[in-house]
Design brief:
alpha/beta, Type Iii Antifreeze Protein Isoform Hplc 12, 3 domains, seven-stranded parallel sheet, 15 helices
Amino acid sequence: MIIIDEKLNQLEKIGKPIQVGMVGAGFMAQGIANQIINYTKGMRLVAIANRTLSKAEAIYSSAGIPSVKQVKTVEELSMAIKDHGVAITDNATLLIENPHIDVILEATGDIDYGASVVMKTIRAGKHIVTMSAELDATIGPILKSHADEAGVVYTVADGDQPGVTQNLISFVRGLGIKLVLCGNIKGLHDPYRNPTTQEGFAKKWGQNPAMVTSFADGSKISFEQTATANANGLTVAKRGMYGPTVTEGTQVADAPGWYPSAALTQKTGIVDYVVGASPAPGVFVIGTTKDSQHKHYLNLYKLGEGPYYVFYVPYHLCHFEVPSSIARAVIFNNATVAPLAGPMVEVIATAKIDLKKGMVLDGIGEYMTYGLCENHDTARAEGLLPMGLAQGCTLTRDIKKDQVLVFEDVILPEKKLSYKLWQEQEKVFAK
C-alpha cells in the first residue's frame, strides 16, 4: 500500500493522474466517487455512465462537484476530459472506447449487464475492476481468460471481503504458513429473509433492499467465498459450508474449534464462515506449519501453541479501498482478486419458498431463491443451476422449499450473455 501511495503521489505531482470511468451509480458507487474525488491523489473520476442520468449527476453533486457535462459521443467526452471537467452519459460504451480513460470500474450490481461491460472493456484493451463478487463467482474464470488473452487486468476490487481476504492470504502465505481455511464473519444468517423483512434496515442506510437481503440470506457470502475459493484453488467441505453460529462476542482466535478436524485437513484448503464471532464484520485465515521454529515464535507472539493459528482483519471497508485496486491494475498490471484457472466452487440456486411450475424466478436477494456454495465438480455432475443464471428462468415443475434447482427444472431466458459466457467457461475449463 505504501508503494501504491508513492506512485499515486508521483502521478499527482507530474499532472498525469489515472483517468477512471465508472459504470453504475448505486449506493457503493457513491462512496467510491467521494473517495476518488476528495481523497485519492493521482486519480480522477472523469466520467460516470448510468442508465438513469440523474443518479450519475447526483453522485458527482454529493462529492462536491455540482457542474457536470452530459455527453452523447466519444468526442464530447474527450473534450470534457481535456477541459478538466467531468461527464455523465447513459452510454457506457463512450467510456470504454474513450482513449483518455485508462480503466473502467464496473459497479452496476447486475450480472448480465456487468458481463457486457467487462467484455467490451477487455476488447477495447482497457483494465477492468469490478465490484461484483456475484459476477466473478459465476463467470470470473472465463472473463479472466479473455483478459489474459487481451493483455489487460481483470480483477475484483479491494475493500469487500474477497479483496480483504486475498490480502490476508498473501500475508499468511508470505510467512510460510500453510492455508487451511479462509473464513468470513457474519452477524446474521437467515436464508428466508426477503426485501420486505429487510426494508427497514435498507432504508436506514440508504441501500437497496434486495442487496441487503442477499447479505442476510447467505447469498452474498456464498458469492464472496466462491470468489476467494476460485482465486486460491480452494473448495468447500460441504454444501453450503458449515457456517457455525457461536455465542455473540466469541473471539475469532477460537476458530479452529468451530470446524470438524476433517474439514481442516482437506488437501486443497477450504472456505467457510461463522455467525456471531468478534471482531465483526471481518475476515480470518486459519493456517498451520510443521516448522518447529515457526511454532516457537508464533507461540512467543501470542498466537498459541498450534497446530492451528488464526490471522484476521477486524473490518472490511468496501469503497474506501477500491482506489488501491484501480492503482494496482493500472500502475502494476496486478489483480487484487482473480480466478487462478477454472472454477473450484460455484453458487447454486436453492428455493427460499415453495415454488410453482410457470413461475419466473426473481433475482439475488429477492423472494424466491437463495444461494449455497457447492464444489464445481459436484454441481456439474448433478446439473445444478448456478444462482448467477437463475434470474428470469421459468420453472417447468414445482419445487419444494430448500430444494436445490437443476437445469432441468427451468427454461432459461434466451440470448443472455452471462449464460453464453458460462457455457464457454465450462467448455474451456472442461477436465
